Amino acid sequence: MDGTVLIADDDRTIRTVLTQALTRAGCRVHATGSLAQLLKWVEEGRGDLVITDVMMPDGNGIDRIPAIREARPDLPVIVISAQNTIVTAIRATEAEAFEYLPKPFDLPDLMSKANQALSRRPRKSDPIPEPLPAPREAADPAMPLIGHAPSMQALFRMVARVLNADLPVIIAGEAGVGKTTIARSFHELSDRCDRGLAVLTSSDATEEAIARAADKARGGTIIIENPAGFDTGAQARLIGLIETMEAGPDRAHAPRIVATTGSDPQADVAAGRLRSDLYYRLAGVTVSVPPLRARVDDILPLAAHLLARAAAQGLPERMLSDDAAAMLRAHPFPGNVRELENMMRRLALTASGPAISTAEMREALSQQSGHRTPAAAPVSALTPAPEPAGVVSLPQVGSRLSDSVEAHLQRYFDLHGDALPPPGLYDRILREVERPLLQVALDATGGNQLRCADLLGINRNTLRKKLTELNIEVTRRRKLM
């Protein structure tokens, strides 16, 4: 790897790690904690690549990209950010950043992107691009689109790539994952945002309703909710609408079609619920939204965001106690983000103090699940049913760990009677074992991560990533290296 890299990040640790990695790879590096210094270097003609954080003490890194491009149109910019929202991904894409990577990032991935950026430096004869407009701001969506999980980051990138295309979109996912919010993002964050938005549902899909929607959304966006729920006549009218938009005299102002579905559209076609010719007209791009149980590490950041938003709307300020947070993280959330949002608003209103207690969280989870009593609400997949005096029995000396785990699991299954536990049990169990394993190993090695990684037989970068993912608290004795 060859070239000069300019790094702007107010986190000294990140500056040090990137400087060392890039220097070892053969690059020259200038690092700063100031956007002003970064822009000074750019204007002086230094650097072949910029790596910048978003939230800096003296400004926003994405907001500075137009100035960087104006001064040096051929200078690629990689954006790194802990602001893991769809808006950040879209704003980085709109500003024509070379790449956007969420924190904590995978160092080999960032090094690969840096190598690609340096390898694709344009020739002197390449045309100078037009200046970019200022990156678009967006209102806080009704349901938060926040996520560091790889599945959500992939979703954000997909939305950013096709945001201003004319292709129709199908957004698929379980109830409560935020399909309608994402559908609205396709309108509100796109170039169509100053034109009309219309929503069509199966309860109002008459010829007149479809005509009104087309007129209202001229040049804008039509959201079709659950097209498989439309009767055959309504589906035929939708096909007629799309054909008119594609070939009619006003096709230059045709609205974009974004459909949402809680089922597999191909299965709907096979079952006869959705006309195949309608499906193929809708499925220009398919975006799958993961359920909340598949991105457990996003639960606590989402909960904190929802509590902060509730406080901004006039409800009391609340935070989660450590035990309440652990209980929340172990909940399977069949209702996904909507369930979490309702729970946080209710707890913000009803909690007795600033910190939501274990008892309050247990009661909230019991109300959400409906069939469980507060005492039986499992804190985790490996927690046995409470003993009368609140004492958890320990394995006898000489017993194997596998025997103890098997006993705990059997009691956990017994709690559900004839029903099965919620899906995702395998991952939940692995997480429950992984956290105490890392904590005990860190304690045994005095917080020395190099020794701890060697003890566990894993790479130190893998250990650091897992400590961040599992929110293992950093103390003087257990300090991130």
From TrEMBL:
Disordered: annotated segments: 116-138
Modified-residue entries (4-aspartylphosphate), positions: 53
Coiled coil: none
PANTHER family cross-referenced by the UniProt entry: DNA-BINDING TRANSCRIPTIONAL REGULATOR NTRC, TRANSCRIPTIONAL REGULATORY PROTEIN
One example GO MF annotation: ATP binding
Keyword check for Transmembrane: no
Family annotation (InterPro entries): AAA+_ATPase, AAA_lid_NorR, CheY-like_superfamily, Homeodomain-like_sf, HTH_Fis, P-loop_NTPase, Sig_transdc_resp-reg_receiver, Sigma_54_int
Main location, first listed in the record: cytoplasm
SUPFAM superfamilies found in the cross-reference section: CheY-like, Homeodomain-like, P-loop containing nucleoside triphosphate hydrolases
A GO CC term attached to the entry: cytoplasm
Span of domain Response regulatory: 4-118
Sigma-54 factor interaction domain mapped to chain residues: 145-349
Keywords from the UniProt entry: Activator, ATP-binding, Cytoplasm, DNA-binding, Nitrogen fixation, Nucleotide-binding, Phosphoprotein, Repressor, Transcription, Transcription regulation, Two-component regulatory system
Compartment(s) where it occurs, according to its Swiss-Prot or TrEMBL record: Cytoplasm
GO biological process: phosphorelay signal transduction system; regulation of DNA-templated transcription
Segments passing through the bilayer: none
Full protein name: DNA-binding transcriptional regulator NtrC
Function of the molecule: Member of the two-component regulatory system NtrB/NtrC, which controls expression of the nitrogen-regulated (ntr) genes in response to nitrogen limitation. Phosphorylated NtrC binds directly to DNA and stimulates the formation of open promoter-sigma54-RNA polymerase complexes.
